[in-house]
Design goal:
heterodimer, A: 112 residues, mainly beta, 6-stranded mixed beta sheet, globular, B: 114 residues, 7-stranded mixed beta sheet, 11 strands, 0% helix
Chain lengths: 112, 114
């Protein structure tokens, strides 16, 4: 079955700098790759997603890139702000079901 | 939280007692999920439902059962709670009519088994 690995587990960056979180997946049939943000005491919330027919997608300061050949995808946050501090999860799924396979999460710390 | 509520939000119980957690949605979404979240493990799927009375196991289903008698309610039962089931439990919903497989999450239930 599908397996998703996420790195790093903790990332500390200076406010204003960029942050990059990387995930790899094992099932070449996976075609949907969302990223979720979880703030303290809340459930995860979708922030951006990408399908396998697209190599990159941007939404303001957030971007996701996908390399299907290498089976990895990354989340890029530019000009980080204090409110970006949270835990970020990547996930993957295919068309065959509505289950998401989740990475273990990355705690992003923005230093003032 | 996209019309999803979980009850109770916090519960402390003793080993060996039965516990039922409730997830209620007002979105009429077809799919409902129960996850547990533990440090270092991210989100792990316990059970999910793809319709009324239609459920299936996830990767960590041992010791848990579920029921869905109505579209809006999905119950998670720990028949005899153990300390290893101390965790934060999240309910999520999704629907085939949505673009992609976006899941919407409830606020979570923190369960402590003493």
């Amino acid at each position: 079955g599908e397996n998703v690995e996420q790195h790093p587990s903790t990332l500390s960056v200076q406010e204003g700098d960029s942050a990059v979180i990387k995930c790899t997946y094992s099932d070449s049939a996976s075609n949907y790759f969302p990223w979720y943000k979880q703030e303290l005491g809340k459930g995860p919330q979708l922030i951006i997603d990408i399908r396998s027919n697209v190599g990159e997608k941007k939404d303001q300061r957030i971007a996701v890139t996908l390399n299907k050949t290498a089976k990895h995808f990354s989340l890029h946050i530019t000009e980080t702000q204090p409110e970006d501090s949270a835990v970020y999860f990547c996930a993957a799924s295919g068309d065959s079901n509505y289950q998401l396979i989740w990475g273990a999460g990355t705690k992003l710390i923005i230093k003032p | 939280d996209a019309g999803i509520t979980q009850s109770p939000r916090h519960k402390v119980t003793e080993t060996g007692t039965p516990v039922t957690l409730r997830c209620h949605q007002t979105e009429n979404h077809r799919y409902m999920y129960w996850y547990r979240q533990d440090p270092g493990h991210g989100l792990r799927l316990i059970h999910y439902s793809y319709g009324v009375k239609d459920t299936d196991k996830g990767e960590v289903s041992d010791g848990y059962s579920v029921s869905r008698s109505k579209t809006e309610d999905f119950l998670l039962t720990l028949e005899s709670a153990t300390s290893s089931q101390t965790s934060v439990y999240f309910c999520a919903i999704s629907d085939p009519g949505l673009v992609g497989n976006e899941q919407f999450f409830g606020p979570g239930t923190r369960l402590t088994v003493l």
